[in-house]
Fold:
Amino acid sequence: MYAGITDAIDPDPNRPNNPDVVANSVIDADGADQAVYFHNSETSTSMLGAFTITAADHAIYCNGTSPVIENCVITENEHTREDGAGMYSYNASPTVNACVFYSNWADYGGGMAIHDCWTRVINCVFCQNELDCDGGGLYIENEDVLHEIINCTFFGNHTGIKGSDRILDGTVDISAYEYDDGC
Structure:
């Protein structure tokens, strides 16, 4: 696993969110547009958990859905045309819990980009994500929508033109988060 970021995943070896299980349960998209695509009005009964997701334009793409995503490592995804290499959420309301977004690259929101939707992000780590424009770890662009970013850690994310680890437009409830420039 990646130095210093395994604490976001439960260390109990008998549970599916064990770091060893996650590290060995890999979804390798091999350059595909999406590794996981939620787009058929899925609800919170649709769950994705205990995977490492890599090598996609968007590791996870949510469009008009409300899935639960937890205990995943989203790493080394690269989107050269748009936002959110780790996760892109549009017109959706996903809940993301105890995930690690590590070393993803996009134009906006290397780790995660949120557009026109409510999103709840809990106990996640955003580390060493990069992009050309704004929001290295997390990019949010919404009007009049409440987002919940709870107990998340942002460190070592890099941005290009405008800087800033998080770009927030709209109403955001950010509580108990940590921010550090180093990783």
Notes: Residues 6-180 form one domain. The first strand starts at residue 26 and ends at 28. The longest helix spans residues 19-24. Residues 1-11, 167-171 have pLDDT under 50 and may be disordered.
